[in-house]
Specification:
The protein is mainly alpha-helical and about 180 residues long. It has nine helices and no strands.
């Protein structure tokens, strides 16, 4: 497999070529990505307190280190997710932090829905994007198309609003001598 095809496969989203579904995926990706940023900022604002209250409680070694990992994952991964750039790795990192958050909530409060609900909803959203990618309205889809022109179907390209570029390469107009 050529290098460009491998990279295109990494960036290529699972495609349901429907304008409404792709628009809703993009909207969900942007909203969830932008909403999680504040969690990383909150962690960094008092990292030692977060480390003691959350990470140390669940028994992870090097709690300060893992606190920084969680905060930076949210601060870097969330904007990447919102942009649809490196969506799968960003979503996987964010999904991991939400799994640790859910584990913390279960240890502290048991299976209490009010404590679990927000981290569970975020985890489900991040898992969705880790599996499906960023959708057609993402930077990843543009990169996949750029790396491998055959990575996306003609219908997907039309939905991405690239039909003009796609048709321009497939239609050759005859030259008229003046």
């Amino acid at each position: 497999m050529p290098k460009n095809s491998l990279l295109a496969a990494v960036f290529k989203p699972n495609v349901n070529v429907n304008l409404l579904s792709q628009t809703s995926f993009a909207l969900l990706r942007v909203v969830v990505g932008m909403m999680i940023v504040h969690n990383g900022l909150d962690k960094l604002s008092n990292i030692e307190s977060f480390s003691q209250a959350y990470v140390q409680v669940i028994g992870l070694p090097f709690p300060l280190f893992f606190s920084y990992v969680a905060a930076l994952t949210e601060l870097i991964g969330a904007p990447l997710l919102a942009l649809g750039l490196l969506t799968r790795p960003a979503a996987l990192g964010l999904f991991s932090t939400m799994c640790v958050a859910m584990y913390h909530h279960i240890l502290v409060a048991g299976f209490s829905i009010p404590y679990l609900e927000l981290s569970a909803v975020y985890a489900a959203c991040f898992l969705f994007f880790a599996i499906n990618g960023g959708g057609l309205f993402s930077t990843d889809a543009l990169l996949a198309n750029w790396l491998d022109a055959s990575a996306l179907s003609a219908q997907a390209k039309r939905v991405m609003n690239l039909e003009k570029a796609y048709e321009a390469t497939s239609i050759v107009e005859p030259k008229v001598n003046a």
